Amino acid sequence: MNKTTTPSIDSSNRQWYLVDAENQTLGRLATQVASVLRGKNKPEFTPHLDTGDFVVVVNADKIRVTGKKAQQKLYRRHSGRPGGMKVETFNALQKRLPERIIEKAIKGMLPHNALGRQLFRKLKVYKGADHPHAAQKPQMLKLDTTALVQ
User: Fold this and answer.
1) pLDDT over 90 percentage in the chain
2) Could you give phi then psi for residue 38, rounded to 5 degrees?
3) Structural domain boundaries enclosing 121
4) pLDDT tens by residue, 74-131
5) How far is the C-alpha of 39 from the C-alpha of 97, rounded, in Å?
6) Are 26 and 19 in contact (CB under 8 A)?
7) Nearest to 136 by CA among 41, 50, 15
8) 137 is a domain residue
9) Separation of alpha carbons 6 and 48, rounded Å
10) What domain count does the chain have?
11) Burial class (CB in 10 A: 0-12, 13-18, 19+), 130
12) Full DSSP string of 33-62
């Protein structure tokens, strides 16, 4: 009889990856980063465990979207008070907080439970090219850009 092995959390070796978001399409970058955060690129992937790696995204202010999304895509947030809805376009949010665009896109692709919140903590997004994680020696993550539309 074959037994299924469950990887132990302490035995998993976590890597640090660096992703340059300059001239990358938002959704395509977010799907690949979410996959690495979940650990789907590893043979010991287990859906209910955190087997993923840390990801550092730099140059968040240089992300792009296709079509007219820059003017039409809306980001909403609510304060919880009556009349507290705030609506902002992609362009306005990119000028104000470009990190939030990538964080929101990736967070929506993670599980919506405690595991997803734990995975989201391993994502680090920075506006410019510099980041404080040089001591972890992050490796450049090669994104699959072959799936681009002709």
Assistant:
1) 83
2) -75, -25
3) 16-65+97-129
4) 999 999 999 999 999 999 999 999 999 999 999 999 999 999 999 999 999 999 999 9
5) 28
6) no
7) 15
8) no
9) 10
10) 1
11) exposed
12) HHHHHHTTTSTT--TTS----EEEEE-GGG
Q: Residue 119: which CATH number?
A: 3.90.1180.10
Q: With respect to residue 117, please indicate whether it lies within any of the assigned structural domains.
A: yes
Cβ neighbors of 94 (< 8 A, separation 6 or more) are 61, 63, 70, 101
pTM of the model: 0.91
CA 65 to chain CA centroid, nearest Å: 15
* Euclidean distance between CA atoms 25 and 147, whole angstroms: 11
Q: What is the CA radius of gyration of the chain?
A: 17
Confirm whether 107 is domain-assigned. Answer: yes
Q: 113 lies in a domain? A: yes
Place of tokens 């990190």: 99
